[in-house]
Write a structure and sequence with these properties.
This protein is of the alpha+beta class. It has a domain of 189 residues: Double-stranded beta-helix. Strands 1, 2, 3, 4, 5, 13 and 16 form a 7-stranded mixed sheet that branches. The protein has a 3-stranded antiparallel sheet with strand order 12-7-14. Strand 10 and strand 11 form a beta hairpin. Helix 5 packs across helix 7. Bound molecules: fe (ii) ion (FE2). Fe (ii) ion (FE2) binds next to loops. The site of fe (ii) ion has 3 residues, from loops.
């Protein structure tokens, strides 16, 4: 497997990224969506390199902000400010949150997170399957990692799709019912595969069919799950504090490895966005 694609941010960019501090407790629906100031040539160039990695190859980037020594508030603000240079942030839920803390405790079992062990398919998914349009770019900032494990797993949809049989590929282009299972949330009818774009979350599809009273043929889903469970299809991404993973969310499906939290909790901040035009 290719080495992890890490882009180290120049520390000289820190003052620019710290021009706007978003205070703790600021409403998650109200984070600023524009960059703090028009980006300098240096910051725009750094953002372009990240965008090229996400939108071309390898389809993702780990940005090491080199800012682990900042306070949590400063770190989250700097990462958000960088993200607003790269993307127009978009809401993550129908309730409009623009940034979201991902802090699922591992305390549901003997140090193992419930979600990561919840089903054999590993819960691999696309983010934002219930939005009109899943976000083009998804990002996770690491504020602190778990003591062990918790790596994000990225599975390249382009490869998964090309390895499916034509019958399974065709089956995934037909509409499936999706429902999150939350009371009052919508029932959507949409394809899993649209061109090369994936929109996948098996649990929502099973729930959607149950709610619609429709029979679900799982043959093609099983084939997709089997491929994405192959270790050589999985790119594990371990994140340290102050690193941000960004990826093409309609290309990759993703999940995470189980983790243990003893002295350190796995604390991430999630962001979704539409890439800006950074061409000069
Ligand atoms: Fe996710």
């Amino acid at each position: 497997m290719d080495p992890l694609h890490v882009i180290a941010l120049d520390r000289d960019l820190h003052p620019e990224l710290l021009k706007r501090i978003i205070p703790d407790g600021h409403p998650l629906t109200d984070w600023p969506t524009e960059p703090p100031t028009p980006p300098t040539i240096e910051l725009a160039a750094a953002a372009r390199a990240v965008a090229d990695s996400i939108l071309r190859e390898p389809g993702y980037a780990v940005v090491d902000t080199q800012a682990a020594e900042l306070t949590d508030t400063e770190l989250v603000s700097a990462a958000w400010n960088l993200f607003t240079v790269l993307c127009v942030p978009v809401p993550q839920y129908l309730t409009g949150e623009l940034i979201y803390p991902v802090e699922v405790t591992a305390a549901t079992g003997p140090g193992i997170s419930h979600y990561s062990t919840s089903n054999a398919a590993g819960g691999f998914h696309t983010d934002g399957t219930m939005l009109d349009q899943p976000p083009a770019v998804a990002a996770l900032l690491c504020v602190s990692p778990a003591d062990e494990g918790g790596e994000t797993l990225l599975m390249d949809g382009l490869r998964l799709i090309s390895d499916l049989t034509p019958e399974h590929r065709l089956a995934l282009t037909r509409p499936f019912w999706f429902h999150s299972g939350d009371p009052g949330s919508p029932l959507r009818h949409q394809p899993i595969l649209n061109g090369t774009e994936l929109r996948y979350l098996r649990r929502y599809i099973e729930e959607g069919h149950r709610q619609a009273g429709a029979e679900l043929s799982t043959t093609a889903l099983d084939a997709l799950d089997r491929l994405s469970e192959l270790p050589d299809r999985q790119r594990p991404v371990p994140l340290r504090r102050a690193q941000v993973l960004l990826w093409d969310n309609t290309r990759f499906i993703h999940g995470r490895r189980p983790f243990t939290e003893n002295t350190s909790r796995r604390r991430l901040r999630r962001m979704y966005g539409t890439p800006r035009d950074l061409s000069v």
